[in-house]
Write a structure and sequence with these properties.
By secondary structure, the chain is an alpha+beta fold. Helix content is 20%, strand content 39%. It has three domains: 32 residues; 133 residues, no CATH class; 53 residues, no CATH class. It contains four helices and six strands, in the order αβαβββββαα. The protein is elongated, with a radius of gyration of 35 Å.
């Protein structure tokens, strides 16, 4: 085995080990449905970071005599809408995305340059003697160039997602806005569907029925996917994914 072949073999060892670990895990789950994730606090998950955003100046509340209204209050009567950490609200995810773009560009350019010498104080005849037989000074230089480029692009996309799920208030920002996060898992036979929703909402946008539309979630992060036998078959193998990244052609 040459040094080059040995180097390639050593480079493939980690990939083989990674593939073997995934294969062993799949072998252990033969005949079993995919396991559901345990219910965990979002703050205890790896990578959790509190949301930081620009906040307005905090003003103190002023109590007016003989008045039931308190300055800075968002509502006169107390309701059951989510407003504190740990409260639950319903999120209506409705995404209807249509995009159609068609671009076409064509560019053509032609250039030609000619230059010659017919008389140069008698030096033309002297130059002809020095040049090979059949050479002329007219034209002395001639250049032609031509370029053409064409580009065409087309995008036609349509996405529709309609689902309802519950989310938990994980943080209350200083201006009163709520940071929410929710995860839903549904297992059907040997396939698990996951829906994740996270973002920042205003308490005023929460309806009286304690629901909010996904279009009113700022910094929204919505993920809809799954795992299981069907998803596994649709994914390319690890080796194919590595080759797609490394191969330049």
């Amino acid at each position: 085995m040459s040094k080059k072949q040995a180097g390639i073999a050593l480079a493939l060892i980690p990939l083989t080990a990674l593939s073997a670990c995934g294969s062993l895990e799949r072998l252990e789950n033969i005949g079993r449905p995919p396991a559901l994730s345990a219910i965990e606090s979002p703050k205890e998950k790896p990578g959790y970071k509190p949301v930081r955003m620009p906040m307005p100046v905090i003003t103190g509340s002023v109590h007016e005599p003989n008045s039931l209204w308190r300055s800075g209050a968002r509502a006169f009567f107390k309701d059951q809408r989510a407003r504190r950490i740990g409260d639950i609200l319903t999120v209506n995810v409705r995404i209807t995305d249509n995009a159609k773009i068609d671009n076409k560009t064509t560019r053509t350019r032609n250039n030609a340059e000619n230059s010659g010498i017919t008389a140069l104080a008698g030096f033309g005849k002297l130059a002809l003697k020095l040049l090979p037989n059949g050479a002329t000074l007219d034209p002395l230089a001639k250049t032609d160039s031509s370029s053409k480029s064409e580009g065409e692009g087309k995008v036609d996309r349509k996405e529709t997602l309609t689902v309802t799920m519950a989310a938990v208030v994980t943080q209350v920002l200083p201006n009163g806005n709520l940071v929410i996060e929710g995860k839903q898992e549904v297992r059907v036979n040997f396939e698990v569907r996951e829906l994740i929703v996270a973002g920042v909402v205003r308490p005023e946008d929460i309806s009286a029925s304690n629901t909010i539309e996904s279009s009113k979630i700022a910094e929204a992060r919505i993920s809809y996917g799954g795992r299981g036998q069907i998803t596994d078959v649709q994914q390319p193998r690890y080796g194919q994914q590595v080759l797609d990244i490394l191969l330049p052609f």
